[in-house]
C-alpha cells in the first residue's frame, strides 16, 4: 500500500490507495478509541493539570474518537494561530482553542469526513461551553500533504500541532515541507508520533491494519531527524518518549523484531539561525518564572529544564529557540555570539582532532545538550 519507494505515476496511485485505506480505517472500521488493536494511537501519558481542566470542557462524542499518541499542548498560546494536522474528531483542537482564547484561532485539517462531522457537529456546543462570544475554531477538509491547496497563507501560523498522524502519510517529506511553509519565522511544529528502532520493511508497510494502527508507517527515528533537518528544521528537539506495545498476538508477531515508541518533538522554524550542531558561545539564560502554570521551572525539551532565577548555560541553538520565539519575554539573556568556544560540551559530536588538549572538544561545562 504505502508508496515510499515507488516513483512517478505509480507513487501517486499508491498514495491515493493509502489515503483511501486510512480514511476507511478512521471513518468506518474504528468507531471509538477502544476499537484500536494496539496502544500506538493511545498511550497513557500523565496529563498536565491545565490539559485535564481543558479536557473536562470537551464533548464526549469528541473524546470517544480520540486516537492520539501524546500530548500536544505547548505553552504560551494565548492569542496565537494554531493548526492541527489530522485533527480527527477535534479533541486537541478543542483543548487548544481554550489555550489560544477568544483572540486566537485553532484550525483543524483532516481528510476523513466521518471524523470531521463529529468535530464540526460540536463547534457551537464548545463555543458556548468556553463562554466565547464567537467561535475560534475552524475545520478544513484536506490532505496534510496538500496544505497549499487550502486557504492558509504561507508564514501565517504560530504553532502547528499533530497527534499520531505523520506516520499515516505516504509522503512524509511533503508534509514537513508544507509545515515549514506555513509557519511564521519563530513558529514551531510541536507534535507526537510513532517511531521505529529501524526501517520498517516493505511487506509490513503494505499491511493495512498495521499501517492504520499507526505502526508500520512509522519512520525510523534517525531518518525522521535527518528529514526534518533537510526541510529546514535544523535542530529537532525531543520532548518525551514512551514505548509502544502491540496488544494483539497476531500483529505483535509480525513486528516482534522492531521496537516502536511514541515521541513528542518540537521543531522550530528559525531560518538561517540554527546550526547543525550545538555550538558554544559562552551564553546563558535565566528563566523568569513567568510561563503560565510553570512558576518554578520550565522544560524546553527532555534535557533543558530551567529553574527560575538560576543561570543556565546554553548553546547557540537553544539561545535562538528562546530568543527568537514566543518564549523570549520569559528569559533574561546573558552573552552574545561574539566569541565561539567550540562545540558545546556533551552535545554528542566531538572531534578527535584535539583530543586531550581541552580545545574544540567542548569547554563550556554547560547544561545544554
Ligand atoms: C490516529 S488518528 C489521530 C486523530 C487525532 N489527531 C486524535 O488525536 O484523535 C489519524 C487522523 O489523521 C487523519 N489523516 C491521516 N492521514 C491524513 C492525511 N494524509 N491528510 C489528512 N488527514 C489525515 C485521519 O483521517 C485520522 O483522523
UniProtKB/TrEMBL annotation:
One Pfam family from the record: Methyltransf_31
Transferase keyword on record: yes
SUPFAM superfamilies: S-adenosyl-L-methionine-dependent methyltransferases (SSF53335)
Record keywords, A-Z: S-adenosyl-L-methionine, Transferase
Catalyzed chemical reaction(s): arsenic triglutathione + [thioredoxin]-dithiol + S-adenosyl-L-methionine + 2 H2O = methylarsonous acid + [thioredoxin]-disulfide + 3 glutathione + S-adenosyl-L-homocysteine + H(+); arsenic triglutathione + 2 [thioredoxin]-dithiol + 2 S-adenosyl-L-methionine + H2O = dimethylarsinous acid + 2 [thioredoxin]-disulfide + 3 glutathione + 2 S-adenosyl-L-homocysteine + 2 H(+); arsenic triglutathione + 3 [thioredoxin]-dithiol + 3 S-adenosyl-L-methionine = trimethylarsine + 3 [thioredoxin]-disulfide + 3 glutathione + 3 S-adenosyl-L-homocysteine + 3 H(+)
Source taxon at top rank: Eukaryota
Domain Methyltransferase: residue ranges: 78-231
Family: Belongs to the methyltransferase superfamily. Arsenite methyltransferase family.
Protein name: Arsenite methyltransferase
